Structure formats: structure tokens, C-alpha cells
UniProtKB/TrEMBL annotation:
One of its GO terms (biological process) is aerobic electron transport chain. This is Cytochrome d ubiquinol oxidase subunit I. GO terms for cellular component: cytochrome complex; plasma membrane. InterPro entries: Cyt-d_ubiquinol_oxidase_su_1. It comes from Sagittula marina.
Length: 539
């Protein structure tokens, strides 16, 4: 297979995934925030909270619809662009996707209609239940997708069947409760909550700067800052869990994130910045923080984190064991084809080395039969297990740096909301508006870390990416690549224009009932209503 076809297939899938992930975090977070706002409305019966629910719910609906349109396309690509991957692991990978469609997406899509059109047809409590079901459905969608994705990084609960030449599920329980999948899920949804919180915070800050919808904006900031701070802190904690999980299941990925070429004495240092060089296998101008990486990666003072060079040497040994497994597999298949009894020795050799069979498949990039590989080709296959270190190194640091800034801004607004009577200096409101796009950048960086860090594997240690793609022509791939790019760009432009349009319009529903309620309670609210949300210059 031409490597160019594989790279084009990867580029196409990566582009569609990146586009799709522009919509996912906001859907996850806004669904929960809208449910929280409606819960407050049901508890207090104050129309302003119903108005807030409908306004932010409208923005959620726009994002939800366009997110669905981009997500469906991705699932079709498994059959179009990655047919061998679908054949090889379809029994395992297809199960979570089916559960996502039946259990999560149908629930989400069904109840989102009731959310928008059931306000005057359902009781307050009944509509609140619908809103929470929409939120739960959104998060269930993420759960099943990330179970599938987590299995690709840590393929548990499955084994290779030499008769069918496919992976087959042995334990659905292990697939669902895969430690990598669970860590990915909680980390991803927390990042979505941060994204939505900063979106609500930024739009509300825009309203305060314009002097419009101030009651809605101040209450929205109160909810978003509290929820966003809790979420931003949880992202750090859950990210630490992901790092510890990677030290057990994806050692090469962890070493590459750190650009750790050589194994260090425990506990390993954390590289703050540096310039990783793939050719020299060295990180130039590196600034290290002692002990930090060892504590994050191993949670101990005496456990080493293997360096890239040591892991490459280990993987070269696994390639050699994989060749033994491949040879035994071919002997088994030849015996079956001839209708003969399977040689017990071949069966034993395969069982002993089957865990390394995927490493022999890495040689398919250079030679048709891995048993014919030269020493140079075996060494090159081992070198191929190193992902592109500079991308991982910098994507991780951008993600972490932005994550720390999200804690600071949400903590600041939470403090102003709780202890400064919801007054905010203008500079902080401008900063909140400027922060709106940053969570998406952090989320995309996180996606790059997860997916680039798994290369050269589609399924870690089992199926190389170079073998997973469909046999298509370059022309087919270029045509669909540009077609998808054009289609997704149009959808993205539509999303941005619709969002800006409805943000500029502002809340239009329940305005009269909100004003009437405030007029009835003017005495009790006079102090807070007469207070400007903008802090005095001296503050």
C-alpha cells in the first residue's frame, strides 16, 4: 500500500475530527449549564432564570444541530477510508458506537425537541426533567465514543482469532471499564464544561460592557464562574489521572510528551520548555523542574519512567517476537487451508508470542512478508514506534498553559461575584471576551496529544495505521478531502454567524414577565439593581 494514501486518509479523518470537535465541547458544557439554570428557575420561580434558560438554550440548539451534522460524517469514514480497520476490530469498536447511537444519541435527539417546544405543554418539573435528559444524553454520547477511542489506546477485553484474522471481544465489561477510556471521558467532559463556562462568561461580559441585559449577564457570570472554576480544577486533577494511566499503558506516548530521550533516575524531572529534535534525539535548551514528572507519571519517588531510546530498544525485541508469532500464524493458516491438523508446536509458538504480532505488522510497510525483513528493516520498524515528538511536546504545553489560565480567570470572576457584589473592572470584562476562543484551542491541542501520541498505531500494539486504510486512489481521497473541507467550512461559518446573530439580538423570550416580576419586587431589589456591574475605577 502506498504510504501517501495512508497519510491522505489520516489527513481527511483528522480534519473532520478537528472540525467536529469545535462543536462537541460547547454542547457538553452548555447542556449542563442550561439544566442548572432551569433548576434554579424551578426552585425560585423567578422569570429571569427561565429567560436565561431559553436564551442559552437557543445557542445550545444551534451548536447541537451543526455538531450532529459533522459527527455523522465521521462514522461513515470508518467504512469508506478505514475499511481494513473496520474489518479487523469491528466486533469490538462497533459495539460502543452502536450503544452511542441507540442509548445516547436517540435520547438526546428526542428530548431536545421537547426542550424547545414543550415549555407551554409540560409542567415546570416535567420540562426540567427533559432538560436534564438532554444533558445526560449529550454526556452519554461522549462516554460511548470515548470508550471506543480509549480501547484503541488500551485494547483490553479482546483477543486475536487466527482463524478469522480479526480481533474478537472477550469481555464487554473490560472494554467499558477500561481505565484509559474512563480517564479520557471524565477529562474530556470536564474540558467541555470549561469551554461552555468561558463562553457564557465571555458573552455575559460583552453584555455588561454594552450595558445590555445586565440582570441576565450578572447571573450568568455567577453560574459560569462557579461551574467553570470547579470544572477547570477537575480538568487538572483528571489530567493527572490520564498521565498516570499513560505511564502504565502508553509509555512511548508519555516519554514523547516529555521529549525524554533517555531514562532518568527516579523521580524524573518535568521539561518546562525546550526544542525537541527528532534527528539528534535530543531536546535542546531544555529547562527542567526536578521530580515533577516522576510524581505525576508514577506517583512515587522510586519508579523510573522509561526514555524513548530504551523503549525503542524494547520494541525492537517485540518486533522480533512478532515475527515468530507471524510465522506460527502462517503455519496455522496453511494447515487449515490444507485441511490438516494444526501443528501443536505452531499453536504453542503463536500463543506465546501473539501479544507482539502487531509489531511484526509494522514491517509490512517495508516488506510483504515480515519473515523476510532485514536487520535494518527491523530497526526501522522499531524506530517507527516513536510518534512525532515536537507536536506532542508543544501541544501538551499549550494545553496545560491554557488550562492554568482558565483556573485563574474563573477564580477571579468567582471572587468578584461572591465578595465584590457582582462588580467587575472593565479590563476583566474585556479579558473574558478575549478568552472565548481559548478553550477550543486547548481542546484541539488535547485531541492532538491523544491521537498523535498513539501513532504509528490505529490500535495500540495491534494494528498499525499503515495497514488500516482502504485501498483508494489518490484522486478519490483528494476529491473527498477538499469536498469535506469545503462542506465543514460552510457549516463552521454558518455556526459562527448564527451565534453572533443571536448574541447580538440577545434574550427575546419572557422579557415582559421578567420585567413585571422585577417591578413587583422593586423595593427588595433596589439596592442591587441600582448598582453598576462595572467596578469603580479605584477598584
Amino acid at each position: 500500500m502506498e504510504i501517501g494514501l495512508v497519510e491522505l486518509s489520516r489527513l481527511q479523518f483528522g480534519m473532520t475530527a478537528l472540525y467536529h470537535f469545535l462543536f462537541v465541547p460547547l454542547t457538553l458544557g452548555l447542556s449542563i449549564l442550561v439544566a442548572i439554570m432551569e433548576t434554579v428557575y424551578v426552585m425560585t420561580n423567578r422569570p429571569i432564570w427561565r429567560q436565561m434558560t431559553k436564551f442559552w438554550g437557543t445557542l445550545f440548539g444551534i451548536n447541537f444541530v451543526l455538531g450532529v451534522a459533522t459527527g455523522i460524517t465521521m462514522e461513515f469514514q470508518f467504512g469508506m477510508n478505514w475499511s481494513y480497520y473496520s474489518h479487523y476490530v469491528g466486533d469490538i469498536f462497533g459495539a460502543p458506537l452502536a450503544m452511542e447511537g441507540l442509548m445516547a444519541f436517540f435520547m438526546e435527539a428526542t428530548f431536545v425537541g421537547l426542550f424547545f417546544f414543550g415549555w407551554d405543554k409540560l409542567s415546570k418539573v416535567g420540562h426540567l426533567v427533559i432538560t436534564w435528559l438532554v444533558a445526560i444524553g449529550s454526556n452519554f454520547s461522549a462516554l460511548w465514543i470515548l470508550i471506543a477511542n480509549g480501547w484503541m489506546a488500551n485494547p483490553v477485553g479482546a483477543e486475536f482469532n487466527p482463524e478469522t484474522m480479526r480481533m474478537e471481544m472477550t469481555s464487554f465489561f473490560e472494554v467499558v471499564f477500561n481505565e484509559v477510556a474512563q480517564a479520557k471521558f471524565v477529562h474530556t467532559v470536564s474540558a467541555g464544561y470549561v469551554t461552555a463556562s468561558l463562553f457564557v462568561l465571555g458573552v455575559s461580559a460583552f453584555y455588561l460592557l454594552k450595558g445590555r441585559h445586565t440582570d441576565l449577564a450578572r447571573r450568568s457570570i455567577a453560574v459560569a464562574s462557579a461551574f467553570g472554576l470547579a470544572s477547570a480544577l477537575s480538568v487538572v486533577v483528571l489530567g493527572d489521572e490520564s498521565g498516570y494511566s499513560a505511564s502504565q499503558t502508553q509509555k512511548m506516548k508519555l516519554a514523547s510528551i516529555e521529549a525524554m530521550w533517555e531514562t532518568e533516575a527516579a523521580p524524573a524531572s518535568f521539561t518546562l520548555v525546550g526544542l525537541p529534535n527528532m534527528e539528534d534525539r535530543e531536546t535542546h535548551y531544555a529547562i527542567h523542574i526536578p521530580w515533577v514528572m516522576g510524581l505525576i507519571g508514577t506517583r512515587s519517588f522510586d519508579t523510573e519512567i522509561a526514555g524513548i531510546n530504551e523503549l525503542v530498544a524494547e520494541n525492537e525485541g517485540r518486533v522480533r517476537m512478532g515475527i515468530i508469532a507471524y510465522d506460527a500464524l502462517m503455519e496455522i493458516r496453511e494447515a487449515r487451508a490444507a485441511g490438516e491438523e494444526i501443528p501443536s508446536q505452531a499453536k504453542f509458538r503463536f500463543e506465546q508470542n501473539s501479544d507482539d504480532l502487531g509489531y511484526a505488522f509494522l514491517l509490512k510497510r517495508y516488506v510483504e512478508d515480515p519473515r523476510d525483513a532485514t536487520e535494518a528493516q527491523i530497526a526501522q520498524a522499531a524506530d517507527d514506534t516513536i510518534p512525532y515528538v515536537p507536536t506532542l511536546f508543544w501541544a501538551f504545553r499549550i494545553m496545560v498553559g491554557l488550562g492554568m489560565s482558565f483556573i485563574l480567570i474563573t477564580a477571579y470572576f468567582f471572587w468578584r461575584t461572591s465578595f465584590r457584589r457582582m462588580t467587575y473592572p472593565k479590563w476583566s470584562l474585556y479579558a473574558a471576551v478575549g478568552f472565548i476562543p481559548l478553550p477550543w484551542i486547548a481542546a484541539e491541542m488535547g485531541w492532538l496529544v491523544a491521537e498523535v501520541g498513539r501513532q504509528p498505531w490505529t490500535v495500540d500494539g495491534m494494528l498499525p495505521t499503515a495497514l488500516s486504510a482502504s485501498y483508494l486512489t489518490v484522486g478519490d481521497l483528494l476529491f473527498t478531502l477538499f469536498g469535506f473541507a469545503l462542506f465543514y467550512t460552510v457549516l463552521f461559518v454558518i455556526e459562527v454567524k448564527l451565534m453572533i446573530k443571536y448574541i447580538k439580538i440577545g434574550p427575546t423570550q419572557d422579557v415582559d414577565s421578567t420585567i413585571a416580576w422585577q417591578e413587583r419586587h422593586v423595593g427588595r431589589l433596589s439596592t442591587r439593581r441600582n448598582q453598576s456591574p462595572l467596578a469603580e475605577p479605584a477598584e
